[in-house]
Amino acid sequence: xxxxxxxxxxxxxxxxxxxxxxxxxxxxxxxxxxxxxxxxxxxxxxxxxxxxxxxxxxxxxxxxxxxxxxxxxxxxxxxxxxxxxxxxxxxxxxx
Length: 95
Known about the structure:
By secondary structure, the protein is α+β, with helices and mostly antiparallel strands. It has helices spanning 54-62, 65-70, 76-88, and strands spanning 9-11, 18-20, 25-29, 35-38, 46-50.
């Protein structure tokens, strides 16, 4: 009998939906205090998962969920960089 592999689920901080980890993008706060997109999902640091949609990023920023999850203030420059990075990624069916 073949064992079924567990598919790890994560919650999008924008739309609050549980989705498979591979469908989400990880935003990580590195030990040096920088915030960046983690496309591999393996960078060290505190992470937060978000859908690949700009609308989810806007919801997370408006509700200050990104700041709370990363435990640091988010600047407008950083928001612009994250928005630009998410726009470059090919979109998947979303929220």
